[in-house]
Amino acid sequence: MNLNHFKYIIEIAKLGSISKAADSLYLSQPYLSRIIKDMEKEMNIQIFIRSVEGMELTMEGVQFLNKAKLIIDQYHSLLHIHSDQDNSKQNSIVLSTIRSSLVMESFIRLIEIYYDSSYEFTINEHNGYIPVHDITYLKADLGVIYIHKQNKSKMMEYFTQNAIRYEKTCDFNNCIIFGVHHPLANKESVTLEELKDYGIVVYSNDSLPYQKHQDTADSLDLILKSNYYNKIIYVNSRASLHNILTHTNFFSIGTQSAKSQEEKFKITSIPLADFSDTSDMEMGVIYRSNTRLREVTKKFIHILESHYQS
User: What are the domain boundaries of the chain?
Assistant: First the structure.
């Protein structure tokens, strides 16, 4: 089997058409069709079915495509291996993370530690799905994720199947997030009743910092469905959420405070009395189990754990 053939399958799946893929790959359509037939025969599966919409993946084809992408990404990763003696790369990290002040505070601490050194740091903030994808396909050194506890067993099964190691950092308690100027910001705890006169700002579903369990209503669902709030703003970035919180009397639902949250981000976390005993989420880090972590990556994990480990 030729590695390029995996690329052909990926291109056909992306474009949904053999003819378009042939044009994109500078190949003839008959040759590409023959490649598909040969691969299906060799693997003893059907990868595509033809429909009025074009070429559609079968269930077997979806599994094949995911594995093919992983093989291609691993191959490209091999091409970019550098010697361990390359000090310029030793102080580098690509971090793929959910949107979180907890993570950003730890990242800022990492910058402070390496202030007098040469380094190359990358931080990419995403919704709850992308960090897992980035670690699966070797696009990041380290991922930081939130896991809904009712979805944890399924996530652990996926990690095992894809040679990903997960290390839990801490449990999360439900908190209400205010700008430091908010009239309720100095209370020890707040109730839903106290919040009903204020608007709420939350991430849209496709921007949530965790993978939402389809069959379970979490604390955010319960609040939004309480009919207390007729002012709701949906955002898709941490910067937008923070700007609204720091310039208005809106609130959000989130987690316990980062260590320097009030000073660095001008927001504060207050326990929500109505759900004070619930902890339906946890935070952890993920990385390839067959990868040797650089010292800078270990340092970031240590910072995160030392600040928030339960």
Answer: 3-79, 93-165+282-308, 172-279
